[in-house]
Amino acid sequence: MIVCGETADVLFDNALAALKEHPVKHETVAFEMINANLVLNDPTRNTMCNCKRKMPMRYAIGELCWYNSRNVTAKSISPFSKFWENIADENGCVNSNYGWCIHDKYTFDQWEMVKELLRKDSYSRQAIIHIKEARDLISYPTLDVNCTIALQFICRDNKLDLITTMRSNDIYLGLPYDVFNFTCMQIQMAMELGLEIGTYYHNAGSFHMYLRDKDKLC
User: Fold this and answer.
1) Domain 2-55+115-217 -> CATH class
2) The whole model's pTM is what?
3) Of 75, 83, 176, 208, which residue is 20 to 30 A from 170 by alpha carbon distance?
4) Phi first, then psi: what are they for 30, rounded to 5°?
């Protein structure tokens, strides 16, 4: 299913309405859409003031700065949220710092690679940043598994689109900040390449609402 919106607020409302058409019987999940495809037509309108889901900008800016810092410690983001401390490893580090995943995790800078690929061939279909790596979750179980799989930057007609592929995305806690952070990356990449800002695509294998959030949104 494809859900579109001109702004983050409209996209959230439309995604919520679509999601509520897919109730499931699960001990923690109230609604779930498989292979949900969300489209934000104007990525510059990426902040929310939705009456059903308010988006505190203090945390949004803190998380964005944390990603840009590439500091993987939960302690560095804890002034804005204690959530990350709950999934940090024994050293207090978090695998989910996207800045670290993009620039440092794989021994080369994926951001710079994407820019170089698109400078050499603006039509390239190889401008992909990998976030989630292959991990043996049977032998080494962990709570810190990236929800995001990859980011694909595509340039057509001098406009830079971004396709984000998620393995899992929860509408209440995750979606507002994921859309904000990834569209900020799209805007920055477009600026660095001297391109216009295109469309933002957000694709989730499992797009869901937890039971704990049902009363807040329904």
Assistant:
1) alpha beta
2) 0.95
3) 75
4) -95, -40
